[in-house]
């Protein structure tokens, strides 16, 4: 975590609203994300978590409001005022997006090595040996055996696909990762291993992240701060432990109390 | 050369109506102005099936004049079905002279090959293109591929080449090998063998590409840079053979493998029939022999 007094935020969200016709996707969301920080967004299904994440990650244009991103050159960029090519460049260099379903984030018909190497080739890497070596390094970092480098993701288990997706995103050394239910659809032991891995990588690389999940345990483990969403609005916002241990809003209280206690 | 005759009565010159030709010429002009860019055009129904050269035939029909001399090749040969029927089509509908001799032609319509004889400034090469989009393999959405062209996001094309090396130990793409035109647009050179790719680079002749079903026209103007994609440690290479042409002895041309019997006998002969015939006329003689399986290896 960084000193918020002296360090400017990496991501600033101001009055972000996304409407689907008259229906509300998310409304009046404002928050800041500092370098090295992980923010969790929780809420029930349909509360606007994914809409918000898509607006932040430049996948979905907001109806109103702004998202500012501070790039490596310390420029404060208004995301939705950038040209499309600049936005797409950010998406494949500075950012990573980990989808809930690895099939959305991977190319299923090319090998694991090519999946990891794609971002490198997209920014101009043209040396096969180097690309392959880098892919191998990342396979090891996400705990996939090196001899699977030429196998297609279709032959991988769900947990391996998710780890491959993470490697494919991290290879470009991004500064900010967006994760949508990164552990969804995985069994509990695999979830635990993935969370462990994510936590290690995030700390090692000093990444910032926005993690959307409905699983409070995931936020407890990963997130420094927590935002609780309901019907498109942020109803509570604070340090993770604070929100989970002493929930103020009735909806948060309901959410926390609905977890099985052991 | 077959001399010009009078065109078929009841048809407009070269089959297409003049308005359609104008529309196609406009598309061609735009294509020439933006080398490698795929220009949409209103492709017409032609009296031959899709996949037989409906795009190429429309381009040829739009640029051909009464004084033109047409050559049509299919897989390098002048005497294959596709070549014969398209040549006949223009001989009848435009009454133009036709030839099989590359240097005599002013327009050459081709499928799958570039003639071995270097082309000159006053010639036009018209390619028949089945799939104009080189990114189609990696990205099925047309909206997305157009965006990728607009923003010159071509990294994924190397993913395909990477995949080739990872699987086969070399870049195994042997035809329709992707090229970058004028340092800007990624282009599918139509299904010519990669052997012909270097000929496209700074070619003296104008190259026009027509895709009838996909309704796209693109072009490479004369003397334009055409680079084949590759990796630093796996540079672009063309095919080479252990044999020379059995008929004319050429060692520098693209060879077809022709099966001669059912005991594994085969011959390697030039795919460019005009080039081969020209060499034989000039007295070149190949080994004339049938190669047998296993004879390449030490016995």
Structure description:
The complex is a heterodimer of chains A (262) and B (299). Chain A has a six-stranded mixed β-sheet, with helices on both faces. The longest helix of chain A is centred in the last third of the chain and has 18 residues, at 188-205. The radius of gyration of chain A is 18 Å and the shape is globular. Chain A starts with 10 loop residues before the first strand and ends in a 5-residue tail after the last helix. Chain A has helices at residues 49-56, 84-93, 102-105, 112-122, 128-141, 158-170, 188-205, 216-222, 240-245, 250-257, and strands spanning 11-20, 23-33, 38-43, 64-70, 76-78, 95-98, 176-180, 208-212, 225-230, 233-239. Chain A is of the alpha/beta class and 262 residues long. Chain A is 38% helix and 24% strand. With 299 residues, chain B is α/β, with parallel strands linked by helices. In chain B, 25% of the residues lie in helices and 18% in strands. Chain B has seven helices and 13 strands. Chain B has helices spanning 18-33, 54-63, 81-93, 142-150, 155-168, 197-200, 273-281, and strands at residues 39-40, 69-74, 97-98, 107-111, 124-128, 179-181, 185-187, 206-211, 216-220, 226-228, 255-259, 265-270, 291-292. In chain B, strands 1-9-8-5-4-2-3 form a seven-stranded mixed β-sheet. In chain B, helix 1 (18-33) packs across helix 2 (54-63). The longest helix of chain B has 16 residues, at 18-33. Chain B is globular and about 55 Å long. The mean pLDDT of chain B is 93. The chains are: A alpha/beta (262), B alpha/beta (299). The A-B interface holds A 84-85, 88, 107, 110-111, 113-114, 117-119, 121-124, 126-129, 131-132, 149-150 and B 138, 147, 151, 153, 155-156, 158-160, 162-163, 165-167, 230-234.
SSE topology:
The complex is a heterodimer of chains A (262) and B (299).
Chain A: E1 11-20, E2 23-33, E3 38-43, H1 49-56, E4 64-70, E5 76-78, H2 84-93, E6 95-98, H3 102-105, H4 112-122, H5 128-141, H6 158-170, E7 176-180, H7 188-205, E8 208-212, H8 216-222, E9 225-230, E10 233-239, H9 240-245, H10 250-257
Parallel strand pairs in A: 3-8, 3-9, 6-7, 7-8
Antiparallel strand pairs in A: 1-2, 1-4, 4-5, 9-10
Chain B: H1 18-33, E1 39-40, H2 54-63, E2 69-74, H3 81-93, E3 97-98, E4 107-111, E5 124-128, H4 142-150, H5 155-168, E6 179-181, E7 185-187, H6 197-200, E8 206-211, E9 216-220, E10 226-228, E11 255-259, E12 265-270, H7 273-281, E13 291-292
Parallel strand pairs in B: 2-3, 2-4, 4-5, 5-8
Antiparallel strand pairs in B: 1-9, 6-7, 6-10, 8-9, 11-12, 12-13
Helix pairs in contact in B: 1-2
């Amino acid at each position: 975590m960084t000193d918020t007094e002296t360090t400017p935020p990496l991501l600033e969200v101001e009055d972000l609203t996304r409407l689907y016709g008259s229906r509300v996707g998310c409304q009046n969301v404002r928050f800041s994300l500092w370098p090295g920080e992980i923010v969790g967004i929780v809420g029930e299904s349909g509360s606007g978590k994914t809409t918000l994440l898509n607006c932040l990650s430049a996948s979905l244009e907001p109806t109103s409001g702004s998202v500012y991103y501070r790039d490596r050159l310390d420029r404060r960029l208004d995301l939705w005022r950038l040209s499309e090519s600049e936005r797409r460049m950010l998406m494949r260099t500075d950012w990573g997006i980990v989808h809930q379903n690895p099939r959305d984030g991977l190319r299923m018909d090319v090998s694991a090595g090519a999946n990891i190497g794609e971002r490198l080739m997209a920014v101009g890497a043209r040396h096969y040996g180097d690309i392959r070596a880098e892919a191998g390094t990342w396979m090891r970092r996400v705990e996939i055996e090196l001899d699977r480098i030429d196998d297609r993701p279709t032959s991988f288990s769900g947990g391996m696909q998710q780890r491959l997706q993470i490697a494919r995103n991290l290879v470009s050394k991004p500064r900010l990762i967006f994760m949508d239910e990164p552990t969804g659809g995985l069994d509990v032991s695999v979830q635990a291993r993935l969370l462990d891995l994510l936590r290690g990588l995030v700390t090692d690389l000093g990444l910032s992240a926005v993690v959307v999940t409905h699983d409070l345990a995931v936020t407890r483990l990963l997130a420094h701060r927590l935002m609780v969403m309901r019907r498109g609005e942020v109803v509570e916002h604070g340090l993770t432990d604070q929100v989970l241990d002493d929930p103020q809003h009735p909806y948060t209280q309901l959410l926390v109390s609905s977890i099985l206690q052991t | 050369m077959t001399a010009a005759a009078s065109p078929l009565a009841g048809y407009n010159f070269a089959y297409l109506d003049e308005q359609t030709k104008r529309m196609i010429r406009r598309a061609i002009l735009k294509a020439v102005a933006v080398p490698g860019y795929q220009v949409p055009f209103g492709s017409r129904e032609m009296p031959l099936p899709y996949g037989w050269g409906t795009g190429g035939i429309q381009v040829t029909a739009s640029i051909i004049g009464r004084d033109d001399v047409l050559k049509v090749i299919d897989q390098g040969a002048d005497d294959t079905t596709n070549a014969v029927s398209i040549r006949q089509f223009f001989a009848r509908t435009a009454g133009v002279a036709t030839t099989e001799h590359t240097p005599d032609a002013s327009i050459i319509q081709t499928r799958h090959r570039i003639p071995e004889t270097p082309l000159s400034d006053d010639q036009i090469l018209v390619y028949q293109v089945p799939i104009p989009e080189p990114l189609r393999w990696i990205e099925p959405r047309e909206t997305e591929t157009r965006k990728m062209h607009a923003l010159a996001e071509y990294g994924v094309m190397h993913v395909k080449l990477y995949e080739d090396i990872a699987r086969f130990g070399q870049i195994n793409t042997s035809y329709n090998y992707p090229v970058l035109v004028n340092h800007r647009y990624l282009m599918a050179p139509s299904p010519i063998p990669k052997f012909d790719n270097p000929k496209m680079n700074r070619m003296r002749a104008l190259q026009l590409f027509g895709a009838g079903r996909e309704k796209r026209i693109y072009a490479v103007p004369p003397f334009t840079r055409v680079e084949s994609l590759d990796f630093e440690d796996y540079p672009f290479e063309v095919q080479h053979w252990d044999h020379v042409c059995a008929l004319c002895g050429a060692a520098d041309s693209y060879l077809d493998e022709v099966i001669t019997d059912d005991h594994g006998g085969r011959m390697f002969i030039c795919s460019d029939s005009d080039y081969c015939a020209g060499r034989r006329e000039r007295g070149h003689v190949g080994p004339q022999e049938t190669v047998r399986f296993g004879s390449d290896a030490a016995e």
